[in-house]
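pasting for ref
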Amino acid sequence: MGRLAGRVMLITGAARGQGAAAARLFAAEGARLVLTDIREDELHCLATELGECAVAVGLDVRLPESWERAVAAAVERWGRLDGLVNNAGVALYKTLERTSHRDWSELMDTNLLGVFLGMRAVLPALRAAGGGTVVNVASVGGLSGIPGMAAYCASKAGVLGLTRAAALEWGPHGIRVNAVCPGHIDTAMTRLPFQDSGALARALPLRRVGTPEEMSRLALFLSCDDSSYCTGSEFVADGGRTAGTY
């Protein structure tokens, strides 16, 4: 049996990148999946690929009513919800000086408000299931600054604070809440601004960028019983970037 056998998991931003990698791994480990994204065409293709264990639901993480529909889809299809992977996010490559009020608001609505709304939306279902897991995808940008990404770093630092507070509040209900902090991962969101990935890799102790599949294995660990005594923590996977000056 897989490590997620019998569990119903909701993954946001599942159409591509880290979300799609997590969906494939979770399905292989026996999970039943509610896959969500605003890219509905790509999302339905992935759900078709995974078969009967997956259902695709269009979700705009910025809208409470959209979250309500996604959670209802899980309960209606499988009668329960056991976990959430809050993976959806956007990046903004602008210095603090160039970041407008609109830039800031739009990014925070997805990266921080979306995480908050998702956690609030799944709580009743997780409590009804007798417990569960939440994995929030933050970033090393929430732990140390990245020049030219001030708003992004602020949003991910907020995700870490939200994760810790929720872990304290929800632990008595058997709900574990953790965050993952990826470094530079080879996805469409990060590939364009960093065309010279070779130079970037040479600046890391492991001498390479990470893959979505590596991040999915960390999300799996935090969503299954292998991490049964872990909550309120951030788990860093960054090739050594935050270890110190290299």
